[in-house]
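Collaborator request log, item 7. Partner lab (contact: R.S.) asked for a structural prediction of Signal recognition particle 19 kDa protein to inform their binding assays.
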Amino acid sequence: MTDSATPINPYESLLPHDRKKWVCVYPAYVNSRKTIKQGRKIAKSKAIENPTCPEIKDVCTSQNLNAELEHKHYPRDPQRDQLHTGRVRVQLVGEDGEFCCEAIHTRQQLYQMIAEIIPKLKTRQAGAGGGAEGKGAAGAGKKKKKKK
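Returned to partner:
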C-alpha cells in the first residue's frame, strides 16, 4: 500500500467555494403542483406554482448570492418539458468559510426564501393581472350573446 493520502470521496478535497459544492435547486423543490414523492422539499402551503430556473436565479442574485443556471433535467420528472428544465447552483458559503447571506444558512431556508420572493417578481405580477382581465372580457362577451 502507498502512503499517499488519496481521499476515498472525491469531493473531500473540494473547498466550500468550489462550484461542485454549491447547493443545487431544481424548480420541482418549490413547486406546489408536485408531491413530496415527486420532489417537493417544502410545505405545499409555502410552495409556489410552476417556478422556472430564471426566476430562481433572479431571486438568488437579488439576495446577493452567487447563482448559475445549468441545463440539467430533474431525475424524478417524467415529462421533462422545456419550460421547467434546468437547475440552479447557489453558493451559500464563501471562500472565507462565512455564509454569503446572513439570513440563509441551510437549504431549507434557501427554498423557503425562494418561494416567498418569486410571487413578488414583476414577471409574476404582470402575468397574473393580464390573465384576470382576459377572463373578465371573455365572460362579458358571452353574457351579451345570451341576452340577445
